[in-house]
Amino acid sequence: MNPLGVGIDLVYIPRIKRLCETYKERFIKRVFTSEELNYALRKRNPFPALASAFAVKEAFFKSLRGYSPFNFQEISLVRDPLTGAPEIHLTGQAEKVFKERGGEKILLSLSHDCEYTIAIVYIWGGK
């Protein structure tokens, strides 16, 4: 496998909180999947988890190096049930574009500190 793309995104957590409080369901339902919401809402403070999910979506877009005709709902930050490691689950057009561009594997790294979260996405494949 060869590296096909890398994307990185840094998110200011208070910005996500402000967007959630200002636009409420309109923003939340448009951006986050039910898995992401369920995970975040189990936390005392859900905004770092939501900001991480947002960063993953943006980093994934960037890793494809160009315009991609899909929406945020098709990219979901999930956790491995055994290890808790973060993973990306793709559906719809996001999955189709990933495969069309030769994607076979996604590596994801997340970190957060104080008011920021960062996501790095590496796409590997055969093309």
From TrEMBL:
Molecular-function GO term, any one = holo-[acyl-carrier-protein] synthase activity
**Which Pfam families has this protein been placed in?**
ACPS
Q: Where in the cell is it found?
A: Cytoplasm
**Which reaction(s) are listed as its catalytic activity?**
apo-[ACP] + CoA = holo-[ACP] + adenosine 3',5'-bisphosphate + H(+)
Coiled-coil spans are none
Per UniProt, residues of the 4'-phosphopantetheinyl transferase domain are 5-101
Which cellular components does GO assign to this protein? cytoplasm
Q: Which UniProt keywords apply?
A: Cytoplasm, Fatty acid biosynthesis, Fatty acid metabolism, Lipid biosynthesis, Lipid metabolism, Magnesium, Metal-binding, Transferase
Q: List ligand-binding residues for Mg(2+).
A: D9, E58
Biological process GO annotation list?
Answer: fatty acid biosynthetic process
Main site of residence?
cytoplasm
**Cofactors named for this entry:** Mg(2+)
Q: What class of enzyme is it?
A: transferase
The EC number on file is: 2.7.8.7
Q: Which HAMAP family match?
A: AcpS
Q: Which family does it belong to?
A: Belongs to the P-Pant transferase superfamily. AcpS family.
State what this protein does. Transfers the 4'-phosphopantetheine moiety from coenzyme A to a Ser of acyl-carrier-protein.
For this entry, the protein name equals Holo-[acyl-carrier-protein] synthase
- Top-level taxonomy: Bacteria, Pseudomonadati, Thermodesulfobacteriota, Thermodesulfobacteria, Thermodesulfobacteriales
Gene expressing this chain: acpS
